[in-house]
Backbone:
């Protein structure tokens, strides 16, 4: 199969400033923030490894997007390199409430057979966020 990964996903937001502060507080790099603020780019993105999350701010209508995309529609699973304890600490230090976990889950590694533990939280738009820690 020639498809080997995910380059980016997109998510709409109801409050771009709150979303920026949240993801920056978690240590994610933000792409094109200055250009977005200057009005020269309609969106900014959150860098995740070699992939990114394009954020569609309030009022964004340009380009292709899902017909029912609304703030809170996204469910993202991040892979955490390190221990579950370290991930919990990082979330707590960022002021993020863990709503579930750690719980055993099946991720994409090992074709769904690699053991992992997950922690769940929500961002300011109520998107579901999962941090998966492979054992």
Residues:
């Amino acid at each position: 199969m020639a498809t080997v990964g995910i380059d980016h996903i997109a998510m709409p937001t109801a409050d771009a400033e709150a979303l920026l502060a949240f993801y920056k507080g978690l240590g994610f790099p933000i792409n094109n923030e200055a250009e977005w603020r200057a009005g020269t780019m309609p969106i900014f993105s959150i860098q995740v490894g070699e992939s990114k999350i394009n954020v569609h701010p309030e009022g964004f209508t340009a380009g292709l997007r899902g017909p029912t995309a609304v703030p809170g529609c996204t469910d993202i699973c991040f892979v955490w390199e390190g221990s579950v304890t370290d991930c919990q600490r990082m979330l707590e230090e960022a002021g993020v409430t863990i709503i579930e976990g750690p719980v055993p889950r099946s991720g994409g590694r090992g074709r769904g057979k690699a053991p992992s533990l997950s922690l769940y939280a929500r961002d300011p738009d109520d998107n579901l966020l999962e941090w998966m820690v492979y054992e």
User: Anything to note?
Assistant: Residues 5 and 51 are 9 Å apart (CA to CA).
